[in-house]
Amino acid sequence: MLKITNHDAVRELRMDRPPVNALNPELVTLLTRSVRQAASECDALVLSGRDGLFSAGLDVVELLQLDRRGMTAFWKSYFELLEAVALSPVPVAAAITGHSPAGGAVVCLMCDYRVMNRGEYRIGLNETRVGLIIPPVLHNAMARLTGPRVAEHMLVAGALIDSEEAFRVGLVDALADGSEATVGQAVGWCREMLSLPRHSMLGNRAFARAHFEQEFAGYTDEGVESFVDTWFSDETQQVMQALVAQLKNRS
Amino acid sequence: MLKITNHDAVRELRMDRPPVNALNPELVTLLTRSVRQAASECDALVLSGRDGLFSAGLDVVELLQLDRRGMTAFWKSYFELLEAVALSPVPVAAAITGHSPAGGAVVCLMCDYRVMNRGEYRIGLNETRVGLIIPPVLHNAMARLTGPRVAEHMLVAGALIDSEEAFRVGLVDALADGSEATVGQAVGWCREMLSLPRHSMLGNRAFARAHFEQEFAGYTDEGVESFVDTWFSDETQQVMQALVAQLKNRS
Amino acid sequence: MLKITNHDAVRELRMDRPPVNALNPELVTLLTRSVRQAASECDALVLSGRDGLFSAGLDVVELLQLDRRGMTAFWKSYFELLEAVALSPVPVAAAITGHSPAGGAVVCLMCDYRVMNRGEYRIGLNETRVGLIIPPVLHNAMARLTGPRVAEHMLVAGALIDSEEAFRVGLVDALADGSEATVGQAVGWCREMLSLPRHSMLGNRAFARAHFEQEFAGYTDEGVESFVDTWFSDETQQVMQALVAQLKNRS
User: Which among C132, C139, C153 has CB closest to A207?
Assistant: First the structure.
């Protein structure tokens, strides 16, 4: 599910769960553990995906089989991953090797830097379209990259945009040609960070990301409950069942 | 004063108070009532104006005849309109059919989405030029669209900019050719919103706009007093009397 | 060290401390006094530098000779300058006549408006590269101009960028061709401000900059201590001694 490669002091965690790198409970737990471990074993981190597909987001097919208790546990576990990335003591770059909707894009928002494979790949938080309501910490993380106006429009519409537009609005920081170049550029960015005086690079980085600490602390059980309520509401279940039926028809 | 048209589930409120759609107490009250009513009678709202002129802003000629008590009442009533638009339970698009200075532009800031008639029309908060001081909620609403740097420059200078520049800096979200196309595009944006799962579209929208609630709550009687003080100050009265004289000479 | 020129109601303070307008304790004190004095003697202020060089930033060679007590006093005095500029009762424009790294760029962040000499001049907060950690008020002042995403990237990397890129990301507001044109355009911007109704221009300006007051108030002795700790840390001293050796070799 996860291929680990060390490019000198930069560790790459490549999601490899065919066919679409869907984030199921197992992959999320594995990612969180690996991100945390990385802090003591390497100096910077790259999160990457398969050629043409970073991650299709949450594994809705598997998650729809969970009961309320199971879904609550999963959602908390997914937030532990997001927090581990956002508050990583070492810099984290996303190598967005291809499509990255919803839960995949959310992981990217938490990184320090985002390089995306130029081409017909799409990225965005399309939660509105699958009946879900985006928690404040994710909404603010988007606004931090694109400004509040663009974030409002994209999040309310559940927009998926292509790589060029993602670059234009600041959702990604750089474009690269092809999957390997995307990883290469993300590794290169990490190396640049590591060439700087370490204590001041990390010190200036810490302040830039300190607000994440408060935001995650502010996402309490009440917020989780509210998300799970929406998940099990008739309206959302209908939208997601229709989505799953569509996915099955397609394959 | 107000032409109401239903485009299916999208209601258009077209200001029609010749010659310049100036916002006097009567039009403001009518708009507020209509905006509130719309929430229970339609699914989305478009605010539009006359061909070539969205609104010239506050009706200074009429307002200059009010005493302190009357002006205080009007200013509160104008803020009720702004709050009704900003916190509307259904999406609101502005179809900026032409010029939109000062009080007209302020209404646009409160909307979810702004389409402007491309061409030699101007928009902006030129309050500085007429001797007025912009309340915090309006200043922040501008900064939310353009970022704080551009907002500071435009608001301090009282700048009126053309539609192309307004689009470039984010004060408007889209341009259309001609007045009817402007309305059409605003209606189209509303329809797009209404094609999404309703509960998640509205849920994600609610968070994006929640800060408006606190901001309006924070604009207390003290803020109103302070605005009215400035209104009746010698300096502001002089500037506005000169403005009115100029308007009369022109016509 | 400081040439004072009155362009009618606009006063220019031109730093002139060869060779590189390095900010030593004496120049900082002189600047602070002059900025404060200006408020009662002129209507707007321009800060400028030498042709091709606004300021090389803090005078590291001189400052490295200070003990902890001396450095603490200097840092407080530098913040008094920054606060005097940020909270100046009259508008302040920066005429960035050339290179403006680190401490020079920081002064520019505090101004109302920044014009930069187009050409091969560089500007930025490269503190990371000299081993220093940027205080919150300066980090936020950058984010206010460029947005938080670009600010994070530039401040963590300690990036110095050329004038065209500085204009593109919003770190400067306008470009001019040549040193004198830069000053001329900064004076022109001040004159534009002074052509507006004074009380509303200053009133709208005051709100746009009110947050600076809280931010400076929030930078307490603890913050100063923390900066001085870093300054005297082995890592930072090494980086700075290497820098000074390099400067000496070059000359």
Answer: C139
ipTM, 2 decimals?
A: 0.95
Q: Is the pLDDT of residue C251 over 80?
A: no
**What's the alpha-carbon Rg for chain A, to the nearest Å?**
17
Predicted confidence (pLDDT) at residue A14 exceeds the cutoff of 90: yes
DSSP E strand boundaries for B19-143: 44-48, 52-53, 92-96, 98-101, 113-117, 122-124
Give chain A positions within 8 Å (CB) of C151.
208
> B250 pLDDT exceeds 80?
no
Residue C12's pLDDT is 98
The reply to whether residue B196 touches residue A157, judged by beta carbons under 8 angstroms, is yes
What pLDDT, in 10s, does the model give residues A181-197? Answer: 999 999 999 999 999 99
B59 contacts B84 by C-beta, under 8 angstroms: no
A53, A17 Cβ separation under 8 angstroms: no
Give the full edge-to-edge strand order of the sheet including C98-101. Answer: C52-53, C98-101, C122-124, C161-162
Q: Which two tokens stand for residue B37?
A: 């009513």
Q: DSSP string covering C123-192, please?
A: EE--GGGGT----HHHHHHHHHHH-HHHHHHHHHHT--EEHHHHHHHTSSSEEESSHHHHHHHHHHHHHH
Which domains are present in chain B?
A: 2-194 (3.90.226.10)
CA distance B74 to B68: 10
Q: What is the mean pLDDT of chain C?
A: 97
Please enumerate in sequence order all residues whose Cβ is within 8 A of that of A144, keeping only pairs 6 or more positions apart, or say none: C148, C149
Contacting residues of B for A156, CB less than 8 Å apart: 91, 112, 193, 201, 204-205, 208
Select from B225, B231, B221 the least CA-distant residue to B64.
B231
Q: How far is CA C122 from the centre of its chain?
A: 14
Q: What is the pLDDT of residue A249?
A: 85
- Find, among C176, C68, C76, C169, the residue nearest to C119 by Cα: C176
Interchain CB distance below 8 Å, A197 and C149: no
Helix (H, G, I), strand (E, B) or coil at A135: coil
Tokens at A100, concatenated: 């990255």
Contacts of B209 in chain A (CB under 8 A): 152
Considering only CB atoms, B199 lies closest to which of A151, A155, A235, namely A235
How far is it, in rounded angstroms, from Cα B69 to Cα B72?
5
Which phi and psi (to 5°) does residue A150 adopt? -65, -40
The two beta strands, C44-48 and C10-15, are parallel
Place of tokens 């900025």: C35
- Cα–Cα separations (whole angstroms), residue C12 to A70, C28, C40, C96: 67, 16, 14, 12
Q: Is C147 on the interface with B (CB under 8 A)?
A: yes
Return the closest-CA partner of residue C95 out of C120, C112, C114. Answer: C114
At residue C247, the pLDDT reads 81
B129 burial level (CB within 10 Å; 0-12, 13-18, 19+):
buried
Per residue in A233-249, pLDDT tens?
999 999 999 988 988 88
pTM: 0.96
Structure tokens at C235: 């890592």
Radius of gyration for the alpha carbons in chain C, expressed in angstroms and rounded: 17
